[in-house]
Specification:
Elements: H1 2-25, E1 28-33, H2 39-51, E2 58-65, E3 68-77, E4 90-101, E5 104-116, E6 124-125, H3 140-166
Antiparallel strand pairs: 1-5, 2-3, 3-4, 4-5, 5-6
Helix pairs in contact: 2-3
Length: about 180
């Protein structure tokens, strides 16, 4: 009797450690090695990328501290059908973080969420198996379409971020 309780407690502990581990897997993250660029220069490139306007998405809440820059990227999402059921038109938001060290930087895209404009068909966190509004409101196929759009949006952010970090920052001052 005591041994069965101990085994159940071990199973519960191992499942909680698995959920913590899977929480780490729910992000887009990569370390990019650069060619002899100091951390301060990379941080400036990151801040310039956060401040720059984008044609594809909107950046807001830009913050920079030392060698780290962060912002919130927002995409508009719209159904391709004429009268979608449910109407999931709204936004996909994601938190973008850039951390810099000498000769390398790491970007992380986390907290990817879907929020509908009408509030009834909000999916919430993209990594959820069932959307926040419930599977009765939003069928599985629609939720998979929204997830696909979110991953496509994240890949657009990654490509634009890499382009921005590859640009050499120019000072506005003339040095003569």
């Amino acid at each position: 009797m005591v041994s069965s309780i101990f085994v159940a407690a071990q199973d519960e502990a191992s499942s909680s450690s698995k959920s913590e581990q899977s929480e780490e897997d729910k992000r887009f993250q990569e370390v990019v090695i650069t060619d002899s660029v100091p951390a301060t220069a990379l941080a400036k490139r990151g801040v310039n990328w956060v401040k720059a306007e984008s044609k594809r998405f909107k950046k807001s809440n830009g913050v920079s501290t030392g060698t780290k820059a962060e912002c919130l990227a927002t995409f508009k999402i719209k159904a391709k059908e004429l009268n979608p059921q449910p109407d999931f038109t709204g936004t996909i938001t994601m938190h973008v973080s850039i951390e810099c060290k000498d000769n390398k930087y790491r970007y992380s895209i986390t907290k990817i969420k879907h929020i509908s404009a009408n509030g009834k068909a909000s999916g919430g966190d993209i990594n959820n198996l069932v959307p926040d509004c419930g599977s009765m409101t939003m069928p599985d196929i629609v939720w998979k379409k929204i997830k696909g759009e979110a991953f496509k949006s994240a890949s657009m952010v990654i490509s634009e971020l890499k382009e921005g970090m590859a640009k050499v920052g120019t000072d506005s001052k003339d040095e003569w």
